[in-house]
């Protein structure tokens, strides 16, 4: 804390009061409600929940409001609150194949069993400012909807059976690499980065956890780098799904599963070409991404980086940053990054004075050395 700054604790209290005033803004402007943030800034809420590792839309909206819209600060607040919560149980693996789908698209097959569902997306907007939002706040809601004459389904959530592109279509031809899963969890328990320190090397389960919690911008940049040749993996989006899934737990004392609620998630699977090896034929490999809420950019980026981090598993040369698990996992957490970067603005008076004295002493020693070298030359002349 800035206890050494003139004014001490009184100055800090005044800074907190000023922050509260800035957050509230002019009193004549209506205050933002938690419900407004949750419903109308839902993509920001999704990011805070994903990188904060806590699915709670109300708390995420509260954190955004408290942080004045600074999403990393909001993620920090959620992480801090999360540490106070007891761990009651671990859920069973979610069944995304049973997802109630709101959006489902594929870049590899046009005609899919179950159809393509466009859902809510910016993909087809013109990126022009909608000035109607300044007047009524309704924007395109005033436009009349037109009948859908295409092959895609409408934007309503669908419970139609939708086989996976990778597992259902490509796998039927044996063209997609089979996932090697442990026979039982006792032989290979799933790690928990929220409870266990990170140690290298790590398995894919911990890598995926790290990417899911990682900073969206950092993961996006790494994913972009793989597309520009810094990993040499050209990917296709096999499938993106947005929807809700059920969460179940299995209490040992009961012996049967209990549905404790639903989560909104975004899931992405990418298809990557693999030339084969001495033991594997040419085939496609997978990249996988899954995040809380609606965030396709993060899910796609996560899938790209996941595939890049499988380089060692595939027998590929590690030549790019996105393939280096220690580099990726050690720098992906925005809370740790923020702490290291922003801590340098805190008081470092003693450290700086020590460095200042060292530089002054080095300059004096350098000047003395120059003078000693100059004396023999002057005497010779």
Write the SSE topology:
Blueprint: H1 8-24, H2 34-40, H3 42-52, H4 57-66, H5 71-82, E1 100-105, H6 132-135, H7 165-170, H8 204-213, H9 216-227, E2 235-249, E3 258-274, E4 283-292, H10 296-308, H11 325-331, H12 334-342, H13 349-380
Antiparallel strand pairs: 1-2, 2-3, 3-4
What does this structure look like?
It is a single chain. By secondary structure, this protein is of the alpha+beta class. The protein has 2 domains: 8-82; 96-140 and 148-332, no CATH class. The protein is built from 13 helices and 4 strands. The protein has a 4-stranded antiparallel sheet with strand order 1-2-3-4. Helix 2 (34-40) crosses helix 4, helix 3 (42-52) packs across helix 5 and helix 9 (216-227) crosses helix 10 (296-308). The protein is globular.
Query: Which descriptor suits the 3D outline?
Result: globular
Mean pLDDT: 86
Give a short account of the largest sheet. 4 strands, antiparallel
Low-confidence stretches: 148-152
Over the alpha carbons, how many angstroms does the gyration radius reach? 27 Å
User: Per DSSP, what share of the residues sits in E-state strands of 2 or more residues?
Assistant: 5-15%
């Amino acid at each position: 804390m800035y206890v050494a700054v003139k004014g001490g604790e009184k100055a800090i209290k005044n800074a907190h009061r000023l922050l509260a005033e800035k957050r509230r803004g002019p009193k004549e402007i209506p205050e933002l409600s938690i419900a407004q943030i949750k419903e109308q800034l839902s993509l920001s809420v999704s990011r805070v929940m994903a990188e904060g590792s806590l699915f709670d839309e109300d708390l995420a909206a509260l954190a955004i409001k408290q942080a004045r819209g600074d999403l990393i600060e909001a993620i920090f607040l959620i992480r801090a609150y999360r540490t106070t919560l007891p761990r009651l149980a671990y859920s069973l693996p979610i069944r995304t194949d049973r997802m109630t789908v709101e959006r489902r698209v594929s870049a590899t097959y046009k005609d899919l069993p179950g159809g393509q569902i466009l859902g809510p997306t910016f993909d087809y907007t013109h990126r022009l400012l909608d000035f109607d939002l300044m007047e009524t706040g309704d924007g395109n809601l005033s436009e009349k909807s037109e009948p859908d004459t295409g092959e895609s389904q409408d934007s309503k959530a669908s419970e139609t059976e939708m086989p996976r592109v990778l597992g259902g279509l490509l796998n039927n031809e044996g063209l997609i690499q089979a996932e090697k899963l442990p026979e039982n969890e006792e032989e290979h328990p799933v790690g928990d980065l929220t409870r266990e320190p990170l140690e290298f090397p790590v398995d894919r389960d911990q890598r995926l956890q790290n990417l899911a919690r990682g900073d969206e911008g950092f993961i996006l940049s790494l994913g972009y780098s793989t597309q520009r040749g810094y990993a040499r993996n050209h990917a296709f989006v096999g499938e993106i799904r947005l929807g809700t899934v059920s969460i179940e737990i299995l209490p040992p004392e009961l012996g049967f599963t209990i549905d404790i609620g639903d989560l909104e998630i975004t899931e992405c699977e990418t298809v990557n070409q693999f030339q084969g090896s001495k033991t594997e034929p040419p085939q496609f490999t997978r990249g996988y991404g899954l995040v809380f809420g609606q965030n396709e950019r993060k899910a796609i980026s996560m899938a790209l980086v996941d595939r890049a981090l499988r380089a060692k598993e595939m027998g590929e040369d590690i030549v790019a940053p996105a393939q280096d698990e220690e580099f990726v996992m050690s720098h992906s957490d925005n809370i740790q990054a923020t702490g290291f970067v922003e801590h340098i603005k805190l008081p470092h008076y003693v450290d700086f004075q020590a460095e200042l004295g060292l530089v002054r002493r080095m300059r004096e020693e350098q000047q003395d050395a120059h003078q000693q070298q100059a004396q023999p030359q002057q005497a010779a002349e």
